[in-house]
Amino acid sequence: MLVIDCPFCGKRPEIEFTYGGQAHLTRAAQPAQVDDQAWTDFLYMRTNTKGVYAERWRHSHGCGRFFNAVRDTTTDHFLAFYKAGETQPERTP
Amino acid sequence: MKRQSFSAMALIRRGLSGHVDWQQQWRKAEPKPAYDAVIVGGGGHGLGAAYYLAAEHGLTNIAVLEKGWVGGGNTGRNTTIIRSNYLFNESAALYNHSLNMWESLSQVLNYNVMFSPRGVMMLAHTVHDIQVAKRHIHANRCNGVDNEWLEPEEAKEFCPLLNISDNIRYPVLGAALQRRGGTARHDAVAWGYARAADELGVDIIENCEVTAIDRDSSGAVSGLKTTRGDIRTSKIGVSAAGNTSVVMAMAGVRVPLESYPLQALVSEPVKPIFPCVVMSNTIHAYISQSDKGELVIGAGTDAYTSYTQRGALHINNHTLDAICELFPNFRRMRMLRNWGGIVDVTPDRSPIIAKTPVKGLYVNCGWGTGGFKATPGSAHVFAWTIAHDEPHRINAPFTIERFRDGYLIDEAAAAAVAH
After folding, report:
1. Chain A contact for B369, CB < 8 A?
2. B222 at the A interface (CB within 8 A)?
3. Does domain A3-83 sit in CATH 3.30.70.1140?
4. pLDDT tens-digit series, residues B83-111
5. For a disulfide at B203, which of A27, B29, B50, B124, Cβ 3.0-4.6 Å?
6. pLDDT at residue B279 greater than cutoff 50
7. Using the beta-carbon criterion (under 8 Å), do B303 and A18 form an inter-chain contact?
8. pTM above 0.90, yes or no
């Protein structure tokens, strides 16, 4: 089980959290102007990275808030946790 | 090269002479500089596609590239359940095509894949479950797929260990039974296809990881770079399961996939006690007994995407909680091993078997948590797609473009795992 460091509550076990998938996907500012392919990319396409991946989590059985994490998907080790709306931190070794 | 034929007589003859003259099952092939087509991924689906390309489409100058060992990915990591009782017409056609092929696969390959149609029973625990199960049964019957409703007493008659009392959290209210469903020996499927493909001249190259896909000035596929050298080819079929996103990115193609760990476990082996396959999507349990005697138990996917081929213990615990309630006899069984595989999940939980925007690049992916059952049918239509440069009638709906065009084949509720 992963230990996840919620930016608001501290380290808690994974079962308190809900996974939110790839982070930093931005909904189009003018949805009506966007063509089908762009909608498809937003709704369905994911980089599904093998390696360092920025993702969303929600502390659903705690503070209830969304936040972001950076994790290496080849080891499941977390590299960073940061609040929603913040930019992804520089990669730490 | 012609292989020895396997038969009861051959077994007796070699048994009496000390089993010394059995042939190697397939050659350890070295990569050649060029092939007519290359399959990336040496699991059941990839090896099967190579076999059907050679056997049915006359393409014998082809190779299967496998980064590890043959059958070492999800083919060797699943719980071997075979069924075809999917809801939608497109799925029913695809999975039933596969089930039909399972029934004669051992004879076709001259290799015992131990297909055992012992019946797959899917339990219902709520009123909603009953409605969904009966809807499936009616839809299946319209599509020529066998599936029938059992009352709890009938379910217990079919599987005597089943606890149908009302003193469990989610009592069994009935079950849908597909009698033609069952199990097969997963390794034998990979080995059988490898042996049969090799006999037809296909090169099976293990420990050979693809690192890049080359394209010519028109954008079409021209070859690939691997850890064992460069290979020229004009057709590449990607059948790489959880690593599909990684391989497709080498050609600049995005696929609507996320890769999750899916776990399974087996108990210590015991005498034959469990006559069928039982699944419960609602409380999340999948169980059968292998011919070796182990209880084979399927757990769920982890919450997060990963490529680690392992998952968290609480996922297995959750499934064992359900197993112990449904089959109290197993409460004192000890579990022997657990492991994980990486499954490539699409948004609608249906696979993609299709051409891609890149000429000469084909993909068979998105089998998610339930690809083993489809191995022969999937391989068969994928080979057709590669050979004809157009989809077979059966896989025509399973495109990448369906996500853009809105023609989802939404089997989320019908798939093996409660998503």
Report:
1. no
2. no
3. no
4. 999 999 999 999 999 999 999 999 999 99
5. B29
6. yes
7. yes
8. yes
